[in-house]
Structure formats: structure tokens, C-alpha cells
UniProtKB/TrEMBL annotation:
One record GO biological process: arginyl-tRNA aminoacylation
First-listed, main subcellular location of the protein, grouped into a coarse class: cytoplasm
Gene3D superfamilies: Arginyl tRNA synthetase N-terminal domain, HUPs, Isoleucyl-tRNA Synthetase, Domain 1
Protein source organism: Chryseosolibacter histidini
Name under which the protein is recorded: Arginine--tRNA ligase
RNA sequence: GGUCCGAUAGCUCAACUGGAUAGAGCAACAGCCUUCUAAGCUGUAGGUUCGGGGUUCGAGUCCCUGUCGGAUCACCA
């Protein structure tokens, strides 16, 4: 039973009985704090049907609902707003329904499948703050879809080939002196990243030197020896030169090991990995097929293009004149391969930054032109960049925030603050360690997920490690407090069964307010999937925790003499703790038993 | 230059898709630990929702226009 749907149908009945017309779309919203009631019907649009002014319309519906619905106990009218007060028995029934439903927050299996891609790093440098937003977002959206009853495939595409990795390879060959993760003690991804930076340094110096000798800029950029070496390696790679391939797979191997360690720390996982080195050839094939079908065309120099001017876009290259593939070619291949691998998926979601909006618009158009009807069920989950207080992150300028460093700092900060508060006395060292990680990572994830994904956001390190207010740790703390209550109830032998709800006579306003938020939980989970927005879940969980804390602070649970009321409060607490746990799980955040 | 996105309290973000006197957190100030965890709670202060027009019972939200940010328009990925 869903309260909103029930109330809506009662309102529909009333309008039909009073004014003789069926209404479908009318606005039912939460009542403002300052007025009595929980639900408010906006009556202005109904005046056309009622032929009365808004106040009279509201009053008539209110009276009818009190007399006939059985769920509305009182009402008041302010201007055209009809504020409804539901009977306590309605709220209690709802609490009972939630409390006795072990899978509250998990909607039934709907038989649909969906694929969600996220992360998709290049293999030439370690993960950074931008990847964190990407991974947390994609992973969370996947969990939200699972909660909506979908079967979900979490995937990533690994950018393991191309000039970028050849740059690291070139620099390592020249300056590496055989350095490995083992000999250097560096994480593999960081080691490879180091040589990417080395490449850039050497390249810039060489270009500068050439220009000083009188070369033009364009010429110098092509002639720089280290760039020539990288290009040579790319060419050899495509020709499957065994020496280059060996170096390539060794260095990529280092990177994967490093990435995996980071993913593990992040609590992010994948069901299947795709590698561009496996998909770009399929992409080429598909482009050639498209060329035969006349979907694409060839220019004089041999390059292959698609003309999207009819769709308001430009012409776009799909194969270079030398026959090698570009980014778009690979993505075409990958998309097709995925639908072959998983024929039952209804669609695919790409979690990729908004600087690639144009790219995905083009990709989906091309797939449509190639005749794949699923093209229109591909969705680019486009999220905004993460800025720093100092401005944009620029890898070339060394202003990137490294993912490993950031996570370590967050955990360290969590540890420090937790120790200062003296919360670790009864914990074993392992338990304490787990708690610090839970809090540090929880703070970070919540900070990145609470903002609407579409929006560009500011990452202020000082604010992200805050543990008070609208933060992950605040919610984790609320959960821990409730668990303490439930442990106490257990030790006192207090249990709540289905029959107990009949004994509860009334509710305090603070309890109703908690229930009012709790009641919207599943609706928000649906909305979060529809909007691809974990922020909706984050906001809801925060509001729930806040509302519960008000209740907690004002009503000492175990002082209650009335056994029914006491049990009601235990049940409410349990329901809130479970919802918090479930909601946070959708964000990838664990909640502690004590903190 | 074309296209797209954004601008809300000092700062970071909300606002149920057109509804009531625009809400939270942080920062500031004032209170609350003898009862379940003060990482909490209560209160005060803080707003011309970038400017200007328009649409209607009603606009932060929709339309037009201007200003300021950002992204994109590569035989890069």
C-alpha cells in the first residue's frame, strides 16, 4: 500500500462525486511546516471543474474526504490550498507495513536488463578526483537500478591502446633504466604515470630546442625525437611487433594492478571489462560495412566520413586516411559488441563527463544510421566537472588530485577526528581501522554524490572532510545511535510483532514527521533511477536522519511507560535504521553499528 | 563565430518539474550533556533567485533579450 496513491484515488473519487468529473493530473504536495497536515491538494486548477472559487472548492473536497475516505481526519484551507491531516491509524498502518516488509526499498524484479558503463580510464596515468566522481556515480546508479528491479551489468571500457600509452612506453624505454613497481616500490599506475610526465617534459624541451634552431612550431612538434619514438611504437603496435607488444602488455599489467587496488579501496566493482584493443577492429569492420551500405562516404585521401549535416551537426571522420581508427570507431565497435554479448539488455548508460556530449550525440546517431534500433535506448549520463578552489584540474600543470592520496587523507582525517572524540576505547585495532575507513570513504562518497550529477561542482578539501551537517558521517552516526537503541531494546527483551501495532493508540508529531519522510523512500528510489541521480537518494537519507534526530532528541524512548508506545518507537527506529542502511548502500556507503 | 549547459544567503548546495512567506549545511552569534552516543538538538541573523521585458489566478522554474562563467565544434582520447 502506498499512501500517496491511496490518497490520490480518494481525491479522485471526491472530485467525481462532487463535481461529476474525472481528474487525472492534480497536484498533491507535502504540507508546509507552518500549517497543520501532511499532504496538500492545490485547488486552483480544479476551479474550472468545480465552478467555485478555490477556497470553496477546497472546503468541499475536504469535507467530503473527512466524511467518506476513512483516512482523512481533519483539514484546513489556506487560500486555495487544502491541507489534509491523516488519522494516526493510517500512519500506524504504514509503519506496520514498512516494519514488517523485509525488502522495503527493494522493488520487485521487473524482468528488464540494463548495462551501465563507468570509469573508463586511460592506462597511462593513475585515477584522479574526476574518476572518483565518475565511478561513485556510475556504481551508485547501477545499485539504484538494481533496487528498481532491474538486472544490471556494470562494465567499463579500458583505453589500453593509442598514442597516450605509447608516450609512457617511450619515456620508460629512454629513461626507465628497467624500473618496475617492485624495484621502485611504486604502485604500477603511478609508475607509468610518472613516465607520462617524463615524456611531456622531454617533449617540451625537445620542441623548444628545435624551434630555437629555426624549426617552425608544427615541424618541431613532429620532429621531436621522443614523439617520433612514440609514434613509431604505435605503428609497430598495430603491426603486432612482438617487442612492442611485450612492453605494452607489461606496462598495462602494472597499471591494471594499480587500478584494481584503487577500485578495491573505493569499494567499486565491475561485472565485465572491455578493452579497446579488442573492440577497435570490430569498429573498423562496422565502418567498412557502413561504407558499403552507403551510410558513410570516402574522401579522396581515403579517409572515411559520416555526414551529419542533415541532423544539424558536422561531418565526422571515422577512419583516418592511413586506415587507422579513431576514438569514434572504437566506440562503435564496443557498443555493438555489448549488445551481442547481452542481447537482453534494454539499453546502455554511459557515465562520461559532459565535455563529451557532442561525441555521444554523434555516436548514437551513427548507430541509428547503421540500423541498430537500440541506438535510441543508449543514454549518455553526462556529469559536470569537478573544480578545485584553485580552479580547474589540469594534469599538465600538476593540479590533479590523486585518487589514492585523497582516499588516504580522508581516512587519516576520519581517524584523527574520531580519536579526538574519544570514540575508539572499546574497539579492537581492526574494528577501529574499519571504522576509520568507513567514515573517511563515507564522507568522500557522500560529498561527491549529494550534488546533482549534471552540475559542475566544487571540491573544497576542507569542506569534504567535515563530519557534521549534510555529510555522510552525520548519517552514519545517526544509524549507529539507532543501533544502540535496538541493542538496548534487545537486552531488555523488548520485541515488536505484527499484533503490537494494534495496541498503539496515538503518535507524537515528531514521529509522524519521521514517518512522512520514510514513506517517500521508495518513490525517491524510482525517481533517482528515472533521473540517473544518486543525489536524490542522498538528500532523502539526509532528511530522514535529520528528522529522526529531532525525534531522538525530544523523546527519550525508554522513559515511556505505555508499552504500546514504546514498541511503536522501537519499530519506528528500526525502520529508519534499515532505510538509512539501504539508502546508503545505494550510494556505496557502509554504516557502522557504533561510532 | 555556431551549438549546448550554468548563474539561488558570505561559501557549498536544495526547491517534488508552474504553487503558499525560496529551504538545508558550513561559517557567525546565543542556548542545551544526571535519562537511549553532543559527529547531536534548539534559537538568532543572513535573499531584488545575475539585469530587463513577457506569458497567467500564481514564475527561481516557461518564452524573449542582455551580462558573466563553462563546455564543445580535431585524421586527440
Amino acid at each position: 500500500m502506498n499512501l500517496d496513491t491511496l490518497l490520490r484515488s480518494e481525491i479522485q473519487k471526491s472530485v467525481l462525486a462532487l463535481f461529476g468529473q474525472q481528474v487525472e493530473n492534480f497536484q498533491l504536495q507535502p504540507t508546509n511546516q507552518e500549517f497543520e497536515g501532511s499532504h496538500t491538494l492545490v485547488c486552483f486548477p480544479l476551479t474550472k471543474i468545480s465552478k467555485k472559487n478555490p477556497e470553496e472548492t477546497a472546503k468541499a473536497i475536504g469535507e467530503y474526504l473527512v466524511a467518506n475516505s476513512g483516512i482523512v481526519s481533519r483539514f484546513n484551507v489556506v487560500k486555495g490550498f487544502l491541507n489534509l491531516v491523516l488519522g494516526d491509524s493510517v500512519w500506524l498502518q504504514m509503519l506496520e507495513a514498512i516494519y514488517t516488509n523485509p525488502s522495503f526499498g527493494q522493488l520487485p524484479d521487473n524482468g528488464e536488463e540494463i548495462m551501465i558503463e563507468y570509469s573508463s580510464p586511460n592506462t597511462n596515468k593513475p585515477l584522479h578526483l574526476g574518476h572518483l566522481r565518475n565511478n561513485f556515480l556510475g556504481w551508485s546508479v547501477a545499485e539504484i537500478y538494481k533496487a528498481n528491479g532491474y538486472k544490471v551489468h556494470k562494465v567499463q571500457i579500458i583505453n589500453d591502446r593509442g598514442i597516450h600509452i605509447c608516450k609512457s612506453m617511450a619515456a620508460w624505454t629512454l629513461y626507465g633504466d628497467g624500473e618496475t613497481p617492485q624495484t621502485s616500490g611504486m604502485k604500477g599506475d603511478h609508475l607509468v604515470g610518472k613516465y607520462y610526465v617524463e615524456f611531456d617534459k622531454a617533449y617540451k624541451a625537445q620542441v623548444k630546442a628545435l624551434i630555437e634552431k629555426g624549426a617552425s612550431e608544427a615541424e618541431a612538434e613532429k620532429q621531436a625525437p621522443i614523439m617520433k619514438l612514440a609514434s613509431e611504437m604505435l605503428r609497430k603496435w598495430e603491426q603486432k611487433d612482438s617487442e612492442v607488444l611485450q612492453l605494452w602488455s607489461m606496462m598495462n599489467g602494472w597499471v591494471y594492478k594499480g587500478f584494481n587496488a584503487t577500485y578495491e579501496k573505493m569499494g567499486v566493482d565491475f561485472d565485465k571489462l572491455y578493452y579497446e584493443s579488442d573492440t577497435y577492429l570490430l569498429g573498423k569492420e562496422e565502418v567498412m560495412k557502413g561504407l558499403e551500405k552507403g551510410v558513410f562516404f570516402k574522401k579522396e585521401d581515403g579517409s572515411v566520413w559520416v555526414d551529419l549535416t542533415g541532423d544539424g551537426l558536422d561531418q565526422k571522420v571515422l577512419l583516418r586516411a592511413d586506415g587507422t581508427s579513431v576514438y569514434m570507431t572504437q566506440d562503435i565497435g564496443t557498443a555493438i559488441l555489448r549488445f551481442r554479448d547481452f542481447p537482453k539488455i534494454g539499453g546502455q548508460v554511459y557515465t562520461v563527463g559532459n565535455e563529451q556530449e557532442y561525441h555521444f550525440k554523434v555516436l548514437f546517431l551513427i548507430l541509428g544510421k547503421l540500423g541498430y534500433e537500440w541506438a535510441k535506448r543508449c543514454y549518455h549520463l553526462s556529469y559536470g566537472m569537478v573544480d578545485l578552489p584553485t580552479g580547474k584540474m589540469k594534469s599538465r600543470e600538476g593540479t590533479v588530485v590523486d585518487a589514492d592520496d585523497l582516499i588516504d587523507e580522508m581516512v587519516k582525517e576520519a581517524e584523527q577526528q574520531t580519536r579526538e572524540l574519544g570514540k575508539v576505547e572499546d574497539l579492537t585495532p581492526q574494528e577501529a581501522r574499519q571504522l576509520f575507513e568507513m567514515i573517511g570513504l563515507g564522507a568522500l562518497k557522500f560529498f561527491l554524490l549529494k550534488v546533482d550529477p549534471k552540475k559542475r561542482m566544487l571540491f573544497d578539501p576542507n569542506e569534504s572532510i567535515q563530519l557534521q551537517g549534510f555529510t555522510g558521517p552525520f548519517i552514519q552516526y545517526t544509524h549507529a545511535r539507532i543501533r544502540a537503541i535496538l541493542r538496548k531494546a534487545e537486552s531488555l527483551g523488548i520485541t515488536v510483532a505484527k499484533e503490537d501495532f494494534k495496541v498503539i493508540k496515538s503518535l507524537e508529531p515528531a514521529e509522524r514527521e519521521v514517518l512522512q519522510v520514510l514513506q517517500t523512500f521508495e518513490g525517491k528510489i524510482k525517481e533517482a533511477a528515472r533521473e540517473y541521480a544518486p543525489s536524490i537518494v542522498a538528500n532523502l537519507v539526509y532528511e530522514l536522519a535529520k528528522e529522526y534526530n529531532q525525534f531522538y532528541q525530544n523523546i527519550p524512548i525508554f522513559n515511556e511507560a505505555d508499552a504500546g508506545k514504546l514498541k511503536g518507537r522501537i519499530a519506528l527506529s528500526k525502520a529508519v535504521a534499515d532505510a538509512i542502511k539501504k539508502g546508503m548502500q545505494l550510494l556505496g556507503i557502509q554504516v557502522p553499528e557504533r561510532m
